[in-house]
Amino acid sequence: MVLGDLVEGGLAPAILAVIERGVHHRPTLATTLRGEVELSSGGEYPPVRIVFGDRQVVVEDGPASEPALRITGSLPDLVSLMVAPLVGGVPSPISARGRAALGLVAFRRVRIEGRLGVMRRFLALIRV
Questions:
Q1: How far is CA 85 from the centre of its chain?
Q2: Which of 1, 33, 35, 5 is nearest to 18 (CA)?
Q3: How far is residue 8's CA from residue 114's CA, in Å, rounded to a whole number?
Q4: Does the residue 82 lie in any domain?
Q5: pLDDT tens-digit readout, 65-102
Q6: Would you say residue 46 lies in a domain?
């Protein structure tokens, strides 16, 4: 795990801790992720770029150049995705937290753009 470029007021150190926890608890899943992921709060904070490489993961403040996945939403909404129980890599409609997370996406408070497989693996990795 590498902490890359930082911007004042950026979230990269906090996101690094979440990613590091996921890699520690789900190492096999972490090895299946490749490419860039961008987490954006829509201007509230600088975007966070996460690069899943062959041998390391880099987390830094700044936009991704060619993200395989981009997730945009307010910080509380992004946290809601992290704590939602998952079924098949998507928030579970059986759980109240899962339904709340699905509602955030359905009502476009959280926007997810990119490859579905990357999204499922990424959400499973960052799940708290």
A1: 14
A2: 1
A3: 28
A4: no
A5: 999 999 999 999 999 999 999 998 899 999 999 999 99
A6: yes
**Exposed (0-12), middle (13-18) or buried (19+): which is 10, by Cβ within 10 Å?**
middle
- Which domain, by its residues, includes 55? 2-73+111-126
How many domains are contained in the chain? 1
pTM over 0.85: yes
Is 64:47 a contact under the CB 8 Å cutoff? yes
- Nearest-angstrom CA–CA distance, 1 and 19: 9
**Alpha carbon distances (Å) from 6 to 12, 51, 118:** 7, 15, 25
CB of 49 within 8 A of CB of 6?
Answer: no
Amino acid present at 118: V
Indicate whether 6 belongs to any domain. Answer: yes
